[in-house]
Amino acid sequence: MKPVIALTKGRLEKQFLNFFETLDYETEPLVNKGRKLQVETEQFSFFFAKGPDVTTYVENGIADLGVVGGDILLEHEPDVFNLFPLPFGKCRMALATKAGYEWPDHKKRIASTFTNITNEYYREKGESVDIIKLEGSVELAPILGLADGIVDIVETGTTLKENGLVVQDEFLSFSARLIANRSNLKIKRNQLVPVIESFKKGANQA
Ligand code: PRP
């Protein structure tokens, strides 16, 4: 059986493909995948899932390897081998508010998809806040009055800018990472180690 690799849908997809094209593998089925969620190439079985689900599939051994943002790994702490950084998916974690916003005197409300990271950020500051969990488009929360600020990833800064928000603090940097299932890596060592090595070489050359 070919190695199974879980890829993160969305923003990392295109960037992964650009990276993968620098390695010595067949890429054409990935380039022309359309809306398919599973893609077979000569060397690999790929499937696409949301970042947190990539970690679940790898943790449970359905995928041998996974490509996922470091932000997702910090937030969810899955029990996987966190192998090494990949040269794409670079982003920062930021606290942002509406431009010119004055923090309230009462307890702040902070919206985020990353509730654990947000909690840890304010714990370190020694400040107690109300954290509101959202699943996406968190930039809406301060605009619509659900929260005073947001904690979210910033890549180009375009989403914040186009929605009238500004960064108040940037506190973590991430990139995409290669992860592996712990027991599959032992059982399928001969098959997986050369793949991991080729990804590593590609990452070092980028
Ligand atoms: C992420 C993040 C921001 C945006 C930042 O959202 O939540 O909204 O990207 O990128 P930028 O700084 O380059 O504009 P994503 O597109 O992954 O979707 P989401 O809103 O569903 O989380």
TrEMBL record:
Protein's GO biological process: L-histidine biosynthetic process
Gene3D superfamilies on file: Periplasmic binding protein-like II
Reaction catalyzed: 1-(5-phospho-beta-D-ribosyl)-ATP + diphosphate = 5-phospho-alpha-D-ribose 1-diphosphate + ATP
Enzyme class per UniProt: transferase
CDD domains in the cross-refs: PBP2_HisGs
Top-rank taxon: Bacteria
Its EC number(s): 2.4.2.17
Any one GO CC term of the record: cytoplasm
Pathway info: Amino-acid biosynthesis; L-histidine biosynthesis; L-histidine from 5-phospho-alpha-D-ribose 1-diphosphate: step 1/9
Residue ranges of every copy of the ATP phosphoribosyltransferase catalytic domain listed in the record: 52-199
Pfam families given in the database record: HisG
Signal is among the record's keywords: no
Principal location listed in the UniProt entry: cytoplasm
Record InterPro entries: ATP_PRibTrfase_cat, ATP_PRibTrfase_CS, ATP_PRibTrfase_HisG, ATP_PRibTrfase_HisG_short
GO molecular function: ATP binding; ATP phosphoribosyltransferase activity
Key words of the record: Amino-acid biosynthesis, ATP-binding, Cytoplasm, Glycosyltransferase, Histidine biosynthesis, Nucleotide-binding, Transferase
Protein localization: Cytoplasm
Domain notes: Lacks the C-terminal regulatory region which is replaced by HisZ.
NCBIfam families xref list: hisG
HAMAP family reported for this sequence: HisG_Short
Entry function: Catalyzes the condensation of ATP and 5-phosphoribose 1-diphosphate to form N'-(5'-phosphoribosyl)-ATP (PR-ATP). Has a crucial role in the pathway because the rate of histidine biosynthesis seems to be controlled primarily by regulation of HisG enzymatic activity.
Self-association state and partner proteins as the record states: Heteromultimer composed of HisG and HisZ subunits.
PANTHER family hit by this protein: ATP PHOSPHORIBOSYLTRANSFERASE, ATP PHOSPHORIBOSYLTRANSFERASE ATP-PRTASE
Similarity field: Belongs to the ATP phosphoribosyltransferase family. Short subfamily.
Protein name listed in UniProt: ATP phosphoribosyltransferase
Organism encoding this protein: Gracilibacillus halophilus YIM-C55.5
Encoding gene per record: hisG
